[in-house]
Amino acid sequence: MIYKGNVWKFGDNIDTDIIIPARYLAHTDPKTLGEHCMEPISPDFSKKVKKGDIIVAGANFGCGSSREHAPIAISALGIPVVIAKSFARIFYRNAFNKGLALIEADVYDLAEEGDEIEIDVFSGTIKIKGNTVKAKPIPPFMMELIEAGGLINYLKKKLEEKK
Amino acid sequence: MGMTITEKILADHSGRSFVEPGEIIDARVDIVLANDITAPLSLEEFEKVGAKGVFDNERVVFVLDHFTPNKDVISAENCKKIREFSKKHQIKHFYEGGNCGIEHALLPEQGIVVPGDVVIGADSHTCTYGALGAFATGMGSTDITYAMVTGNIWFKVPESIKFLCYGKWQKWVTGKDLILHIIGMIGVDGALYAAMEFDGEAISTLSMDSRMTVANMAIEAGAKNGIFKVDEKTISYIKERAKRPYKIFESDKDARYKQTIEIDVSKIGLKVACPHLPSNVVDVEGLKDIEIDQVVIGSCTNGRLEDLETAANILKGKKVASWVRCIIIPATPEIYRESIKRGFIEIFMEAGCIISPPTCGPCLGGHMGVLAKGERAIATTNRNFIGRMGHPESEVYLSGPAVAASSAIKGRIAHPEEVL
Lengths: 163, 420
Ligand code: SF4
Fold this sequence. Notes:
The complex is a heterodimer of chains A (163) and B (420). Chain A has helices at residues 16-19, 30-35, 45-48, 69-76, 89-98, 140-148, 151-162; strands spanning 2-10, 54-57, 81-84, 101-104, 116-120, 125-128, 131-134. Chain A is of the alpha/beta class and 163 residues long. Chain A has a seven-stranded mixed sheet, covered by helices on one side. The termini of chain A are far apart. Chain B has a five-stranded parallel sheet with strand order 4-3-2-5-6, with helices on one face. Chain B has a five-stranded parallel sheet with strand order 16-15-14-17-18. In chain B, strands 10-9-8-11 form a four-stranded parallel sheet. Chain B has 420 residues and is of the alpha/beta class. Chain B has two domains: 5-263, 2-Layer Sandwich (Aconitase, domain 3), CATH 3.30.499; 274-415, Aconitase, domain 3 (2-Layer Sandwich). In chain B, helix 2 (39-49) crosses helix 5, helix 11 (305-315) packs across helix 13 and helix 11 packs parallel to helix 14 (401-410). Classes of the chains: A alpha/beta (163), B alpha/beta (420). The complex binds iron/sulfur cluster.
């Protein structure tokens, strides 16, 4: 799976209240959630971002609450992958369960907003401005989840096997 | 090779005699929890899977506490969905009406969670139950659906960090100050993916309410769980409440830790976390003339009886500053009732406080105390991220109940000694 897009940069400790503020959590439809993504620090983000763009962030991306609305909001804008120095634990599970790929790599200082970036999710190879960066490999179990199409499809398969 | 309490509970629930950090295991869960924000997504997934029912209708728990009593039509629709599902599947622990409180105060109080359990909840502060010697952690709605259907979930066994606490507690200082001190020291990702284990002589003198405050905020250091050993205090708390038999696990002497951090609690004073991270921690004395518009005393962190008692002791015979809204939220109906019996509610009303029904409400900027642009609050809650309590340009300071109550009187952030 190879993704190519333009970079949107966010710093360290981007928490779930930034990704999608709590006042919108009564909503479950992806479109509404996407419209308010990153609103507290970048009110126009949802209008400016294009399908296929990629988020590059610092450490501890997704810290805070367990709201799955956060990865849903990001995916709803057509962002297929987030690259960060590190991710918060619950966000990490949620993203993969929902089919948003997360890559742990340090390209923060290398990337500038708007740069074109290419990432091969399976091999973990990132290309930016002529540089090649190797990401931390995705754990085999997470790969299994992606290949199954998320946790719910994985469970569906399991339940059918039982029958 | 020895194991930690976290490793032992996970080994026990995955039918193994030994597990070690980094392993991925499939474990049985004792309790699966969701709330009015996260359950709707879980139930949507439940439909998609085409499952016939839940794995055990006595072990799936729904607490509708975030936007309730329902703040708008969409919240009401969400609660209706969960109510109908609960009726259909005969969910035993469904809380919405006069029995409802903030989930992480309610579950231990009602004896739904017991020592030795594995608990997962679609709420990040599920880690609170570690105070009872259980392994408890937050997950997203999809993981919760998986566990609701199968009774199992996968875990990566975490490394453990031990916080060895010794020394005598200073006056006024509680579990909130300890955990703020720790988060200030190690940062909001200082325990990322790890188990935080709290031990030492200073912990044994800490009340159950305070232990729950400490475990509650383990997530604010990025931890997977926070955990305490079971002692006489735990047993006396749980003995009358436990709805199921429980099992006590204890870390081995030769258990392996990623790190051991020693903390002399006698050096910890009253702490405040400044905007916009729980790790921006300073001593209250260092904050001069920070005027406030609102005080919130409540939440799954500090809305328990001990917290309200502390606030009542400070507010007794005093008045809240005229321009300040001081909102008091007993975390559960039992705490509310006990606060009436003990006269706390009378004290709060005399002082000019607003008393809210048990709800998360302002803690997440939901309702019952949302901040306007430029407003500032001090709250006994656990998060002060940008916009957490309302407008993106509002500010939240975090403290324990003693500082919050004193600040309400002064109209600025204050130490209890300034008002007594
Ligand atoms: S009180 Fe606040 S932190 Fe606790 S469960 Fe409710 S919203 Fe979450």
